[in-house]
Amino acid sequence: MFTTTSFPDFDSAAQATLTYLHQRMGLSLWMITRTEVDNWIVLQAQDNGYGVKRGMCSIGPIPFAPAW
Q: Strand, helix or coil at 45?
């Protein structure tokens, strides 16, 4: 059962959400991102194999050139 919890800040809430998704769904990568034009900026990541870290940015059109 999922219970709600108050978090003191965005980072805490984001990390708890990504941890929950990883435990529940079992995928190797979960991210919370924001975009600027065609770039993704990683705000928070739950990574288990791809080397994606907070603060990384993709360059170029997202579907065609994810240059981490």
A: strand
